[in-house]
Amino acid sequence: MIDQLIRGILQKEAKVGVIGLGYVGLPLVLRFCEEGFRILGFDIDSKKVDTLKKGRSYLKSIPSPRISQFVEGGALDVTDDFSRLGESDCILICVPTPLTEKMEPDLRYIERTTESILAHLRKDSSLSWKVRLIQERQKN
Predict the structure, then answer these.
(1) Which helix (H) or strand (E) holds 118?
(2) Computed over its alpha carbons, how large is the radius of gyration of the chain?
């Protein structure tokens, strides 16, 4: 199984699923598309999904044409339907990881995402976490 996955990745035939299409996930999705991978993006925010399906961006740092070229070309599909996770050969999870008042990672988003996707994973899926710690600035 792992040899087949590695071969699929090296030959860019593996379909990559990315959960969380925010400041970390969306640029990652676009980079994979630029490298020739087919991407299935997931987000719980249906407004984000609808915007991306129209080939438009909701992040100022990413111009809409960069997204539309991949949507229109069929390299990028997005959904809020997590039952489609089984379509992905490997899955990258990019959800927020804020810090608590004690400066420790708040793992609630990671835990909730894990619980919600378990029923939809294939037995041969590869799963990876992309964690970005978020430190909120205190207001004086």
Answers:
(1) none
(2) 16
**Alpha-carbon distances of 136 from 9, 13, 40, 59, 116, rounded to whole Å:** 36, 39, 30, 19, 26
**E strand segments, the chain:** 15-19, 38-42, 76-79, 90-93, 96-98, 126-129, 132-134
The pTM score is 0.81
Do 54 and 73 touch, CB atoms closer than 8 A?
A: no
Mean pLDDT of 87-103: 86
Task: Read off the pLDDT of each residue in 1-30 and give the average, rounded to a whole number.
Answer: 88
Residue pair 21/78 in contact (Cβ under 8 Å)? The answer is yes
105 closest CA partner among 115, 95, 113:
95
Q: Kind of pairing, strands 38-42 and 132-134?
A: unpaired
CB 21 within 8 A of CB 52: yes
Q: 3-state class of 21 per DSSP?
A: coil
Name the one residue in this structure whose structure tokens are 């961006």.
57
61-70 pLDDT, tens digit each: 999 999 999 9
